[in-house]
Design brief:
342 residues, 48% helix, 15 helices, 3-stranded parallel β-sheet, TIM Barrel, alpha/beta
Length: 342
């Protein structure tokens, strides 16, 4: 009977946008954790086409919505938990993944002006701009291909089709195949980038897409928490236990050096699917400096040391109006599914 009531409730609420507070009362999340990657007022060629991102006015509107309807909290408050509501307001944690330069140049000043704390999860191999993430290189490749006249792109697609035993009907078909490549096939990305004349080292030097260690230390001095996001952004579920431990610990140890923190939280690159929780539990027991782990499954319940987050990069329709209510409603709508599959 309860499942029927829940099904009817969510089918009805999908047609009528109920206040977020109604969903929160039903599912009662102890904390709402939000996940961003980058905020920029400019087109970022290494991210364009991979995922959406908000501009500075949209992000500021999000923060003001959070301040008006929730209670922004720090990571330290959550780890010390349980976090108490104040005047009925649910605690909200703002987080950023990867370590893009705009976290320092764009995000930090806005957080300072709005008085909101955040956690910055760093892919530590990228800090200092010594290596370009293969998916960021993919975005640069696609940008070059998509702006080519068809007379130029058609022979290239035929050439790559012959090399990789594929048949590309057009640029869109190539794009779909290219973005689906596993991280184990980075040599293919490098081969295509070389054919297009893309200079990764030059891009890193001139554009500096990632933060430096000095920049991340400034985030810490301003009161924000630094977290680990693996060393190379590898898909952890594809690694051996030893490789997985190395990715987590290398990243956490570097963050510990940069931040001086006794405890370092960790956010899974992509997601935590396929990773045995008992392995992570043993790793945390062996290395007490590892803090809470963060995943990307909205409000799904997990083991007690893992918190899930709501992805919030999708752009709003207006520069001045937040779309967080819609994003939170969408996340809450998934709860019946998560409840049934947990």
């Amino acid at each position: 009977m309860k499942s029927v009531w829940i099904d009817r409730f969510f089918r009805h609420s999908g047609r009528i946008p109920l206040p977020v507070s109604w969903y929160a009362r039903l599912w009662r999340p102890p904390v709402i954790a939000l996940c961003y990657h980058v905020v920029s007022d400019e087109e970022l060629p290494h991210i364009r086409g991979l995922y959406d991102y908000k501009d500075s006015r949209m992000f500021r509107a999000d923060l003001r919505y959070i301040k008006n309807h929730f209670r922004p909290v720090s990571y330290e408050e959550i780890e010390a938990g349980p976090v108490q509501k104040e005047k009925g307001k649910i605690p909200v944690l703002v987080t950023f993944d990867d370590g893009c330069r705009e976290c320092h140049s764009v995000v930090l000043p806005i957080l300072r002006e709005e008085g909101v704390p955040a956690v910055f999860f760093l892919t530590t191999a990228w800090i200092g701009n010594q290596v370009l993430f293969h998916r960021h290189l993919m975005a640069l490749c696609l940008r070059e291909v998509e702006k080519m006249p068809s007379d130029y792109s058609r022979p290239l697609l035929a050439e790559w089709g012959a090399s990789f035993e594929k048949r590309f009907a057009g640029v869109e078909a190539f794009r779909t195949w290219f973005l689906a490549l596993r991280s184990t096939r980075q040599e293919v990305v490098q081969q295509i980038a070389a054919r297009l004349g893309i200079d990764s080292a030059g891009f890193l030097q001139t554009q500096q897409p990632y933060m430096t260690s000095e920049m991340v230390q400034e985030l810490k001095r301003e009161g924000h928490c630094l977290g680990a996001h693996s060393h190379t952004h590898a898909r952890l579920s594809e690694l051996t236990a030893e490789q997985m431990a190395a990715e987590i610990l290398t990243s956490a140890n570097l963050v510990r050096i940069w931040s001086g923190q006794a405890r370092v939280p960790f956010a899974f690159p992509r997601c935590g699917d396929g990773i045995e929780r008992h392995f992570l539990l043993a790793l945390r027991r062996q290395h007490p400096h590892l803090g809470l782990f963060f995943d990307s499954k909205d409000f799904k319940r997990d083991v007690d040391f893992i918190r899930n987050r709501v992805w919030c990069d999708q752009r709003a329709g207006s520069h001045e109006k937040t779309n967080l209510p819609q994003q939170l409603r969408t996340a809450f709508h998934k709860q019946p599914f998560y409840a049934l599959t947990s």
